[in-house]
Design goal:
Elements: E1 2-3, H1 44-69, E2 74-75, H2 86-89, H3 100-123, H4 131-150, E3 153-154, E4 162-163, H5 165-184, H6 188-205, H7 208-216, E5 224-227, H8 239-242, E6 252-253, H9 258-266, E7 273-274, E8 280-281, E9 293-294, E10 297-298, E11 308-312, H10 313-326, H11 330-337, H12 339-343, H13 354-368, H14 375-384, H15 405-410
Parallel strand pairs: 1-5
Antiparallel strand pairs: 2-6, 3-4, 5-11, 7-10, 8-9
Helix pairs in contact: 1-3, 1-4, 3-4, 4-5, 4-6, 5-6, 6-7, 6-10, 7-10, 10-11, 10-13, 11-13
């Protein structure tokens, strides 16, 4: 099952100009749309779709930069437009590095939460079984999960700094309510989306039993819920694709990453890239990589409008595997872990002990969720819980985006 949201295009007021001899050429701009006009049931779908569009923009920025920090890709000689800065390549995320990541991701959360509030106010009792409300709550859940996985601290609407687990609290509450509303609306599709979202959040919160229970309800391995992108404007392109689309940018490469050699030896389609062009780059961005790199461009996202997974059935199997592994069931975890590999006719992971199983889980999750903006959150929680097993060395690298200077300097609660 593939789910996509409809694009929400913000339109500016248009004034008509009549051109005739002796006519008045004065143009009157009616101004912004008044908020009261949004209190119309017919406007609610657009409001909810707008929340999804905002999340797409936030995900676009964080998924690309976090991929550089966690070495899912490396810079290929571009530090300018759509490039990877020298500091980002070294794993440094600084408050003075700009505010796009923060502003876009926070806007997505605010738009979704405000939209849900408006839907409830407009529909009243009718909201309890509204698919529109369920979809809005789903965007609340995913936008807060996105913030929890990628940002160091929580700040809600100009308030004080809080632990980033606040985002997880909000995400689980939203997904839980979405399940209830979607069920009342007899919308099995949205119910399953909310259930899969909640499974991922419960995993992040350490509620392994709850996460596995939710994941077990998504029995269809082909289930996938995606964030779409569009060709309307550059802001709506898939940023990972566009930054290495050859025309005009060759900003990142798979060369030198774990995924390069893994793909060569297994041909795993989940980490596809093209190495046919013998192009080399060298500049300040790649000094620490030896001065020159080969341009091997990712092909997981082959076009500007390529979508990014938010949840999938195969992710649910990995959640079940992790829960089993924490419970000490190594053989059960490996069986779940290898289901996807069996389906793709790939070599299976083997483990003689728990440490081997954890290494396999960490690798498989990195492969399945490659370039989806999920890796920093995984590395942080595994480190916090002292999980065994080998993984890429993230020592000295920032695994979350800090509060930017723009927020620190304007929010009185942070001074």
């Amino acid at each position: 099952m593939t789910m996509n949201i409809r694009a929400f295009v913000r339109t500016a007021p248009v004034a008509a100009l009549a051109l005739a001899a002796g006519c008045d050429l004065k143009v009157t701009n009616p101004g912004p749309i008044q908020a009261v006009f949004l209190d119309n049931p017919a406007a609610l779908t657009a409001i909810v779709n707008g929340a999804g569009r905002d999340l797409a923009e936030g995900l676009n920025w964080t998924s690309y930069t976090s991929a550089a920090v966690t070495r899912e890709v490396l810079p290929s000689g571009s530090t300018a437009a759509f490039g990877i800065s020298v500091r980002q390549q070294l794993g440094i995320l600084s408050p003075d590095d700009g505010n796009e990541w923060w502003n876009l991701s926070q806007r997505a959360r605010w738009t979704a939460e405000s939209g849900v509030k408006r839907v409830k106010e407009v529909l009243g009792a009718g909201a309890t079984n509204s698919a529109t409300l369920a979809q809005g709550l789903i965007w609340v859940g995913y936008s807060n999960r996105h913030l929890a996985e990628n940002f160091c601290d929580a700040v809600i609407d100009g308030g004080p700094k809080q632990p980033n687990t606040v985002y997880l609290d909000r995400a689980e509450a939203a997904f839980t309510e979405a399940i209830t509303v979607a069920s009342a609306a007899n919308n099995a599709t949205l119910r399953d989306v909310a259930t899969a979202g909640r499974a991922s959040v419960r995993l992040l919160r350490g509620n392994l039993a709850g996460a596995a229970a939710d994941a077990g309800l998504i029995t269809n391995n082909a289930f996938v819920y995606r964030m779409p992108y569009f060709v309307n404007t550059v802001d709506q392109y898939n940023r990972i694709y566009w930054a290495s689309a050859n025309q005009p940018y060759r900003a990142h490469t798979v060369w030198g990453t774990f995924y390069e050699n893994y793909r060569r030896t297994t041909r795993d389609p989940r980490v596809a890239y093209d190495s046919s062009l013998t192009v080399r780059f060298g500049d300040a961005a790649v000094t620490s990589l030896g001065g020159q790199v080969r341009w091997y461009f990712q092909t997981k996202y082959p076009v500007r409008e390529s979508s990014i997974n938010l949840s999938s059935g195969w992710e649910m199997r990995l959640i079940e595997a992790e829960a089993l592994l924490v419970g000490g069931d190594v053989s059960g975890a490996m069986a779940k872990l290898n289901l996807r590999r069996t389906a793709l006719n790939l070599p299976l992971w083997t483990a003689s002990n728990a440490a081997d199983a954890w290494t396999a889980l960490k690798r498989e999750r990195g492969i399945e969720l490659w370039l989806e903006g999920r890796r920093m959150g995984d590395f942080r929680r595994w480190a916090a819980l002292n999980r065994p097993g080998e993984q890429e060395n993230m020592t000295g690298r920032n695994l979350c985006f800090p509060i930017p200077l723009s927020e620190l300097e304007t929010n009185p609660n942070l001074r």
